[in-house]
Amino acid sequence: MTDHNASPSPPTAAAIRIRAFGLDDYAQAYALWLRTPEVGLSSADRPDAIARFLERNPGLSFAAWRGPRLAGTILCGHDGRRGLIHHLAVDAAERRRGLGRALLERSLDALYNRGIEKCHLLVFSANASGQAFWAAAGAARRTELALYSLPTASGAAASLERSSP
Ligand SMILES: CC(C)(COP(=O)(O)OP(=O)(O)OC[C@H]1O[C@@H](n2cnc3c(N)ncnc32)[C@H](O)[C@@H]1OP(=O)(O)O)[C@@H](O)C(=O)NCCC(=O)NCCS
Fold first, then answer.
1. What are the CA-CA distances from residue 154 to residues 43, 76, 151, 157, 159 (Å)?
2. Measured from the CA of 91, which atom of ligand 1 is nearest?
């Protein structure tokens, strides 16, 4: 389905390529997250934190490129029991063409191949289109749960830059 509000890529544009997210993707990824207000950002998104996340969770996060331009990202990790998805973001010009679903499927397949049977994700309550995406993907909204967050040291919460899980 086409989003007529998005500027379509020219027909000659390079094909989308999805590959494992690496630190080389960081600069364009951070720029994409910054221009995507639905993505929460914090000190946990600094390069050293993302490097540590990728090192602990190899092969679970992906970046989609159209030629030299980053089209989308998904970060995914697990704790040995459950997966957790962050920063699923598709560039506004690339939306409603199945890329979000394709990125999600890569991470879900990678989790499944590691024996992880379920993953969670956090989405802001005001993000109606994000919630529509997750509903269409078959995700169950957990109305019986409330999310709490706790800093590990007093003052740590002050480092938050844009409300982030
Ligand atoms: C949510 C997001 C990642 C979806 O990416 P996408 O590539 O456009 O998604 P897809 O094309 O794979 O959409 C799959 C299905 O999800 C649903 N969907 C996606 N975007 C939707 C929207 N804006 N409104 C309603 N349903 C939507 C549709 O059912 C769609 O299938 P269809 O196009 O055949 O109707 C993208 O809109 C985005 O980056 N949003 C900002 C960041 C965000 O909200 N991330 C998710 C929350 S963590």
1. 15, 28, 7, 8, 11
2. 39
Determine whether 94 is exposed, middle or buried from the number of CB atoms within 10 Å of its CB (0-12, 13-18, 19+). buried
Q: pTM for the complete prediction?
A: 0.91
The residue type of 29 is A
Ligand 1, closest atom to CA 86? 48
Six-digit token pair at 142?
């957990």
Ligand 1 contacts (CB < 6 A) are 1, 36, 38-39, 88-90, 95-101, 123, 127, 129-130, 132-133, 136
The pLDDT averaged over each successive group of 10 residues in the chain (165 residues) is 47 85 98 98 97 98 98 98 98 98 98 98 97 98 96 67 62
- Spacing, Cα 39 to ligand 1 middle (Å): 13
The number of angstroms, rounded, from the C-alpha of 153 to the middle of its chain's C-alpha atoms is: 27
Residue type, 89: A
Distance from C-alpha of 102 to C-alpha of 59, rounded to nearest angstrom: 15
